[in-house]
Amino acid sequence: MDLLADIAKGVIDGNDQRVAQVTQQVIEQGTSPKSILDEGLIAGMNVVGERFRVHDIFLPDVLLAARAMYAGMDLLKPLLIKEGIPSLGKVVIGSVRGDLHDIGKNLVGIMLKGAGFEVIDLGNDVPPEKMLRTAQQENATVIGMSALLTTTMPVMGEVVDLINREGLAGELKTIVGGAPVTADFARKIGADAHGFDAANAVDQVKHLLNVT
Ligand code: B1M
């Protein structure tokens, strides 16, 4: 089996030790972190999502898959983050209130740091007020929100409304993302940008802040 498919299988099986071992092996062989992410870890997690949707597997299996995914991401993290480069700007990120999914949000944080942004990660289940207050206290210019549930997506709109009510629109930009979040939804709630994946989130934030 090709090694990236082996990583995907490790995620599907919830085998964190296997994922860590093979991820280390492909890193040493010089495979690009992006291929390892897309064709290994994320490919595996997509299968897990589909099997969960059709009730082929259950929540404990998904938790094991998440743990296995993190075993690989931990090894990739230092390759994706370049230390010691001047900050391009400060971004507050979090999964919105009610949403415990944090793998995609963490990837966005890693990629933003790798591109030279300072990232304040508020974790998951973050209330709108906390996002806004932290951004103000930290002088951040962008709030990045992640949602994986159709039931939590509307919280993103609450954050945008709060920013507008406090007269901060234009000064404090917003970017939204997550599997069910579309560019159309982003437009409807008045977010400034939508990222379809973590790499695209970096491009979008750069665009918002006019950095190249
Ligand atoms: Co849950 N879950 N889950 N889950 N889970 C989904 C999202 C689901 C689609 C599964 C399914 O039914 N097929 C479904 C949602 C259905 C819906 O709303 N329409 C679902 C459900 C129902 C639930 C529970 C309600 C289950 C239950 O309790 N009965 C529950 C809810 C908990 C809660 O949040 N309150 C729940 C729980 C969990 C676990 C805790 C077990 C675990 C999360 C562990 C963790 O995150 N630490 C989990 C997982 C792992 C998943 C799936 C299988 C995988 C999500 C994932 O990490 N993908 C997921 C199925 C799926 O999405 N296919 C599913 C990998 C990750 C890299 O992708 O997060 O999409 P993603 O991020 C992408 C892009 O979206 C983008 O960049 C990343 C790629 O580079 N992106 C951004 C993400 N955020 C961004 C922000 C940006 C820009 C881009 O700008 C700021």
Q: State the secondary-structure class.
A: alpha/beta
Percentage of residues in helical conformation: 55-70%
Number of strands: 5
Q: What is the number of domains?
A: 2
Question: Into which percentage range does the β-strand content fall?
Answer: 5-15%
Order of strands side by side in the largest beta sheet?
2-1-3-4-5
Please give the oligomerization state of what you see: single chain
In N-to-C order, the SSE pattern is: HHHHEHEHEHEHEH
Largest sheet: 5 strands, parallel
pLDDT averaged over residues = 94
Q: State the low-pLDDT regions, or none.
A: none
Could you outline the blueprint of secondary structure elements for this entry?
Blueprint: H1 3-13, H2 16-28, H3 33-53, H4 59-80, E1 90-95, H5 103-115, E2 118-121, H6 128-137, E3 142-146, H7 153-165, E4 173-177, H8 183-189, E5 193-195, H9 198-208
Parallel strand pairs: 1-2, 1-3, 3-4, 4-5
Helix pairs in contact: 1-2, 1-3, 1-4, 2-4, 3-4, 4-5, 5-9, 6-7
This protein binds CO-5-methoxybenzimidazolylcobamide (B1M).
CO-5-methoxybenzimidazolylcobamide is lined by residues 42, 45-46, 48-49, 52-53, 59, 62-63, 66, 93, 98-105, 107-108, 144-146, 148-150, 175-180, 195, 197-198, 201.
